[in-house]
Amino acid sequence: MTILNLFCLGLNHETAPVEVRERFSVPMEQIGARSRELKMLDGVSEAVVISTCNRMEVYVAADGDDLEHAERSVKDNLGVSEGDGAHFYERKSGDAMRHLCRVVSGLDSMVLGETEIFGQVKKAYQFALEATATGGVLNKIFQKSFGVGKRVRTETSIQNGQTSVGSVALDLAEKIFSDLRDSTVMVIGAGEMSRITVQSMVLRGVKKVYVTNRSFDKAVDLAAEVGGEAVKFDDWARVLSKVDVVISSTGATEPVVRVADIEVVRKKRRYRPLFMIDIAVPRDIEHEVGEIEEVYLYDLDALQRQVDEGQARRKAQVSECEKIIDIEVKKITNQ
Fold it and tell me: Catalytic one among 8, 53, 101, 321?
C-alpha cells in the first residue's frame, strides 16, 4: 500500500499558545461530523480529525497524488489565515505516518510518555470511522499506529513515572498546600481527563472530592467510582466556598468559571488560598480569575513550564522508541 497521498496538518502545545489552540479545537462529539465534512472537500478522499487539550491535527488522504490541492481545501475549511501559518506544522507521506506513531506513543506530548493520548486518538479515529470519513489508507495507518504505540509502551520505559497532565497538576498543588490530605477538591467535568485526575487525587489521600458535570448522571457515576460527592452543575458555585483545589476539564466553548463566581464567595472563604487548574481547551476558567489575590490559576501553558522536572529518565528512552517507530513505518511504506 502506498501512503504517498497522505498528509497531516496540525498545531500543538509547542507551536501554538493556548489562545490559538482553543480557536481551532473541535469538541469530541463533533469529531466524526468534522472528519466527514473534510472528506467531502475537493481533492480529499479520507479524513480524521484529532482534537485534545494540547493539539488539533487533521490527517487526510488526498484524492489522487495532488496533495497541495487537498491541503489548500483543508486549510480554507479550517479557516487557517496567513497569520496562523506559523503555528501549524505539515507532514507528508511517510513523515505523516511517523508523526502519527510518535503522537500515539506519547513522544509528542507535553508530558513525555503520557498515556491518555493513546485513548484520545483511538476515540477520534473511531468517530471518523463511524462517520464513514475513512477508507483504505487511513484505516490502515491508524490501526498500524495503535500497534506501534502498544509496542513502544511494552518494550521501553517511556511511561515510567508521572505521565499525565493531571498528575503533574497535582504535584504542583502539593507544592502550594504541602499535604493534599487536608484539602477538599472539586472537579468540574466528568470526562476521561477528569476521571484520571480525580483518581490521582484519591491516591494522594485528599480529604473530600466533589464532582460536577452538566450531565448529572455522569457526575454521579464518577463520584461513586472515587468515593466522592456529586453536585448538580447549576449548584457548583455553592460548593466553591468549601474547596481548596478546583480542576476543570469540560468541553464548554466559553468560560465556565468567571471572576464573579469567585468574588461572591471570597468573604465566606475568609480569603483562603484557592488553587485552580484549567486543563480544558477552550479554557474553562476566565483568565482574569488569576488576578484575584488569593487565587493561583494555572492553565495548560502554565503547566508546560512545570513539566521539565522528572522527564530526564523518559527522555533517555526516546531513541529506543524512535527505533521501533522507524522499523514499523518502513514496513508499511514498503508494502
Answer: 53
